[in-house]
Specification:
Elements: H1 3-14, E1 28-33, H2 39-55, E2 58-63, H3 68-80, E3 85-88, H4 97-105, E4 110-113, E5 127-130, H5 133-148, E6 155-161, H6 167-180, E7 186-193, H7 198-212, E8 218-221, H8 224-236, E9 246-251, H9 254-261, E10 267-270, H10 276-287, E11 295-297, E12 302-304, H11 305-311
Parallel strand pairs: 1-2, 1-3, 3-4, 4-5, 5-11, 6-7, 6-8, 8-9, 9-10
Antiparallel strand pairs: 10-12
Helix pairs in contact: 2-10, 5-6, 7-8, 9-11
The structure holds beta-D-galactofuranose.
C-alpha cells in the first residue's frame, strides 16, 4: 500500500470515520450487467464471476434485466458503497452522463466492458474494453459479398437488429451496410429489432416471412440467439434454413456451432464474451496506480459452417 494511502487511512481512522473498502485490503469491483438475454451474455457473466474469484477480487454484481434505469440505480449503489472500481456493459449508448459524473465526483474510476457509451466527455471512463462491432458488421458483409460472387440478380436481405440504441446494434448495421452498399444488388428489404433474444428473433422472422416469403434470400442477424429463433420460424414456414435462406449471424456461441453443424446456419462472426480476465487485470492495475489504455480491442475471427465441426471442440463459450 502506498505511503499516501496509509496516511489517508490513518487520518480517516483517527477521525473515527468508516474506512473505505480499499483500506480493508480486498479490491472491491461493482459490476452492472445488461441482463441475461442471450447465450453470449450468460458466458460473459460466467467469465466475469469466475475471473473475480480467481483474482481474489470482491465482486458486487447486478443484473439490470436489460433496463437502463436498473443499471443507473446499481452504479449509484456502488458509489454509495465506495467500491474501488465500477465497471458496466451499457445496455444503450446514451443517457449515462449524469451518473458517470457522480462516479467521477466520488473519485471512483469506471471501466466500460463490452459496449461503449456516446458521451462526449471521455474523462468519465478510464478504459473501454470490448469488440469492434463495426468490424464485425464488415466481416458479415464481406462474407456475403464473397458468397454472392458469380451469381446474378437481386440479393434480398432481411435484418434482425439487436437492442435499439445499443452500440452493437448501431455498429453492426453500420459495418454491414458499409460493405454491401458497393453493389446495388444487395437490398435490405426489411429491418427490425429482435432485442438480441431467441423469442423475439423468431417472432420478427415470422412477420418477415409472412410479408416477403420466398422473396427473402438472406437473413442478417446481429446475434446468434435471434438467428436461432429465426431458424425455427423458417422451418415452421416449410423452408430450409441456410439453403432457401442464407443465414449470417454474430457471436459464435455454442448454439451457433450446433446450428452450423446441423447445416442450418451458414456463418457466425466471432464476438468474444470472455472479458473477465482482462477486466480483473485492469481493476488491479488501477488500484496499483497504473494507467490503462483508453481502448482495449478484443481480437476475433469468423466461422463458416464448413469449419464448425472441426472448431467446435475447442470453443470456450
Ligand atoms: C456484444 C454484446 C451483445 C451480443 C449479444 O458484445 O453486447 O449483447 O452480441 C448480447 O448476444 O445480447
Amino acid at each position: 500500500m502506498t505511503i499516501q494511502r496509509r496516511t489517508v487511512i490513518a487520518a480517516i481512522a483517527a477521525a473515527g470515520l468508516p474506512l473505505p473498502l480499499f483500506a480493508q485490503g480486498k479490491l472491491v469491483l461493482g459490476f452492472s450487467q445488461v441482463g441475461a438475454e442471450s447465450e453470449w451474455r450468460t458466458a460473459n457473466t460466467e467469465s466475469i464471476k469466475a475471473s473475480a474469484k480467481d483474482a481474489g477480487i470482491e465482486l458486487k454484481f447486478s443484473d439490470a434485466q436489460q433496463k437502463q434505469e436498473n443499471q443507473i440505480k446499481a452504479i449509484r449503489s456502488f458509489i454509495a458503497q465506495k467500491v474501488d472500481v465500477i465497471a458496466f456493459s451499457p445496455v444503450v449508448e446514451s443517457g449515462w452522463g449524469t451518473v458517470l459524473r457522480e462516479a467521477k465526483a466520488a473519485n471512483i474510476p469506471v471501466i466500460l466492458s463490452d459496449r461503449a457509451v456516446n458521451e462526449k466527455d471521455d474523462s468519465l471512463w478510464v478504459s473501454f474494453m470490448g469488440s469492434d462491432f463495426v468490424e464485425e458488421g464488415r466481416k458479415a458483409g464481406r462474407w456475403l459479398v464473397e458468397k454472392s460472387k458469380g451469381t446474378t440478380g437481386d440479393v434480398n436481405i432481411v435484418e434482425l437488429q439487436g437492442t435499439v440504441g445499443s452500440a452493437p446494434a448501431i455498429d453492426r448495421k453500420k459495418g454491414f451496410e458499409e460493405i454491401i452498399k458497393a453493389d446495388p444488388r444487395f437490398k435490405i428489404i426489411r429491418s427490425q429489432t429482435g432485442d438480441f433474444t431467441r423469442a423475439k428473433g423468431k417472432e420478427v422472422m415470422e412477420a418477415f416471412l409472412k410479408a416477403e416469403g420466398k422473396k427473402i434470400n438472406v437473413l442478417y442477424a446481429h446475434n446468434d440467439d435471434m438467428a436461432i429463433g429465426a431458424i425455427q420460424a423458417i422451418e415452421e414456414a416449410g423452408m430450409k434454413p441456410a439453403k432457401d435462406i442464407t443465414i449470417i449471424s454474430i457471436d459464435g456461441v455454442k448454439g451457433a456451432f450446433e446450428a452450423m453443424i446441423a447445416g442450418k446456419l451458414n456463418v457466425s462472426v466471432e464476438c468474444s464474451p470472455l472479458l473477465g480476465p482482462q477486466l480483473m487485470q485492469a481493476a488491479k492495475d488501477l488500484k496499483a496506480g497504473k494507467a490503462l489504455p483508453k481502448r482495449i480491442v478484443t481480437q476475433e475471427g469468423i466461422f463458416p459452417m464448413e469449419v464448425a465441426a472441426k472448431e467446435f471442440p475447442s470453443r470456450k463459450y
